[in-house]
């Protein structure tokens, strides 16, 4: 397999892990995950049920999910992810790495507004 570096562009791979004991409560931990991944909210009122999708950061930033707690974003979106993680820095650890993407993977993080899994 030949790698053509000229056709590849830099992106940022993020890896994070949670220190469960650092969170004040399970709901505090859930706030972190909801802020990152979004959540579904169900409201029951007067015999009716209303379902809402509350977007998280990764709902609005195109990314490629690599594995649990590992994803890739375009370099121009990396600052938003770093800012979010820094707000939680006492409770999580994160690392970022520059990676090279080419062809279809690069298009996925540039154009889509949802998660894409590498196969």
Explained architecture:
- The chain is an alpha+beta fold and 119 residues long.
- It has one domain (5-117).
- Helices cover 32% and strands 41% of the residues.
- It is built from four helices and seven strands; from the N terminus they run βαββαββαβαβ.
- It has helices at 26-37, 57-60, 75-87, 103-111, and strands spanning 8-18, 39-45, 48-54, 63-67, 70-74, 92-102, 115-117.
- The strands form two sheets. The chain has a five-stranded mixed sheet. Strands 2-3 form a two-stranded antiparallel sheet.
- A hairpin with a 2-residue loop joins strand 2 and strand 3 (48-54).
- Mean pLDDT is 87; it is low at 114-119.
Q: What is the 3D form? A: flat
The description of the largest β-sheet is: 5 strands, mixed
Unreliable residue runs: 114-119
Number of domains: 1
Helical residues, percent:
25-40%
End-to-end span in angstroms?
17 Å
Number of helical segments?
4
Category from helices, strands and their pairing: alpha+beta
- Give the total of beta strands: 7
Mean pLDDT: 87
Please give the radius of gyration in angstroms: 17 Å
For the largest sheet, list the strands in their spatial order.
6-1-5-4-7
What string, H for helix and E for strand, traces the elements in order? Answer: EHEEHEEHEHE
The portion of residues forming beta strands comes to 35-45%
